Each structure stands twice: as C-alpha cells, then as structure tokens.
C-alpha cells in the first residue's frame, strides 16, 4: 500500500525540500500531497520527488478550470486527488449530487487514475464514491493516526535538529 505524506508547504520548506524528500523515501513514503503548493509553483519540489522516484500528487477541486486540468495532466506522475466537495472535511454533508459530472469533466482532461476524497465519512459514501473514482481517500476517520504521525514527526524533527546542532557545536 502506498504511503503519501500530506501537509502544508511551509513545514516541508523549513525542513528543507531535498532533505525532506530523501528522509521520506528512506522512511518508506511514496509521495506527497501539499495542499497549498500550486502545481504551477511546484517544479523544484517535484524535481526532488522525481530524483527519488517519488510522486507529488496534484489536487483538483470542483472549481478547477479546464485549462488547469490540462496542465495538471501534464505534471501528474501517478494519480490525482479529486476533492469531492467544497467545504470542510468530516462535516457529514454527504456526497455532492454533482460528483459524477465533476469526475466526468476531470476524466475528459486527465488520463491519470483519480482518487476521490474530502467528505467521505461512512461506508455508504465510500461505496458510492468507489463506483465513480479509481480510489477513495477517507482522511477524517484516521485523524488519530494523523495526530500521532504529526507528534512523531515533530519529535523526530526535534531530535534530528538537536543531533545536527550537537554535531555542529562539537566541531
């Protein structure tokens, strides 16, 4: 099962893009979803991922233009994450009645497999989305794992920085 790290760009940037990608690869990750890094601005990070045989998975929202869909198709390298609705994840709003139309529009421009997520909170919704997409992301139900991973990642980063600082001071 692929492991994809999802987060915001600033902590990844602060860690060091190249260093992060190498560390993630060594830890067994297969790629990244960076929610606030537009595909048009991701060339450097994407290059680091490519160098390590990893993916940078683009996001597509229902508001994504056809022009941007075509661009995303060019830069994608594994699959695309389709955000199923506008709003807040985990709010039990249900699956959008327009989801099939949205995915049909995406498929007309994107040749990569489509993972659909954001707002999938129960088995019925999972089955409904699975009939439309190539994969389903159920993030709100693994929130405890997310927080645990964040804590472990923070502790690991702190330890790594402490060791680096210790080595620098002992030179």
Helices and strands, with pairings:
Layout: E1 4-7, H1 9-15, H2 17-26, E2 31-34, H3 43-51, E3 55-56, E4 59-60, H4 66-75, E5 80-83, H5 99-107, E6 114-117, H6 123-130, E7 135-137, H7 143-170
Helix pairs in contact: 2-3
Describe this structure in words.
By secondary structure, the chain is α/β, with parallel strands linked by helices. Helix content is 47%, strand content 13%. It is built from 7 helices and 7 strands. The protein has helices spanning 9-15, 17-26, 43-51, 66-75, 99-107, 123-130, 143-170; strands at residues 4-7, 31-34, 55-56, 59-60, 80-83, 114-117, 135-137. The strands form 2 sheets. A 4-stranded parallel sheet has the order 4-5-6-7, covered by helices on one side. The chain has a 3-stranded parallel sheet with strand order 1-2-3, with helices on one face. Helix 2 packs parallel to helix 3. The radius of gyration is 18 Å and the shape is globular. The N and C termini lie far apart (42 Å). The model is unreliable at 143-148 and 155-171 (pLDDT under 50).
